[in-house]
Amino acid sequence: MRIQKEAELEQGLVLEEADLALIHQLSRKKLTREEVYAFCVRLCDNEVDRDGERFSAECLGELARLFVGKSGIFDHQWSAAGQTARIYRTELVREEGTLTQAGDGYCYLKGYAYLLRTEKNRDLIAEIEGGIKKEVSVGCAVERAVCSICGADLRSGSCGHVKGQEYEGKLCFAELQGATDAYEWSFVAVPAQRNAGVIKTFDTQREQLEREARLGRKYLAGLKDEVARLGALADPELESGVLKGIADKLEEGELLALRRAYEVRLDKLYPAQTQLNYSGAQQREQKDGAFLI
Question: I want to staple 85 with a disulfide (CB 3.0 to 4.6 A). Which of 35, 53, 115, 184 is the partner?
Fold first, then answer.
């Protein structure tokens, strides 16, 4: 029985060496990080969908193996011209504490896909990043569609239950079991599975590192400017451009040492002056017996 279900995408992954190694098993040439755009897709889950069907957790595990190497296309149109991406690994994800309509633990099949950063794919990458290309659907084959009420295979004709109806408070749906093949996954407009599509990536660790790097660059630039300014005061004969060029070549430790040396030299050249002068007050005290500040 051929099945088509929708999914969800995850934008812009940071490729590790392990990812590149898996991609190289599918590509004919060794690709670099700069040549590849990778993203994740929520292919299918075990929640009851708009068609009144769901995959069993066991079926999702079987599909995990079958979807590796499968192409991503558009609207399930099987043509070589429509091939855009390929799944290089999959993962069965279980969300602890989340239950399905059937009352069991929620899980979904996550696929890791890649495509080439070519001129042809530039617009597609932009649409994925912009959330335009978001929903996806899977095409696969299963052995059985089991009625949740009586356990019969809905294809046998022996079951009189209707998907979406309730029988004594229990929802009727078809549980898809026994995955036999995975054909492809496609970008579509309206997914049957509500959670299917592109998953957004929030790499908080990477964002934190980028923020710290920006702060570090800002601090270092300010330190270089400060050293150049102090150098101009300590050595007026040196041009500011020369001092700036010297500072730009130094590391933080060298800059701090040079700043301290300039500060010591400036303290000797321009010793601190006392704000209050008591000599006049002492003279006035001798004259009229008053001490004034």
Answer: 115
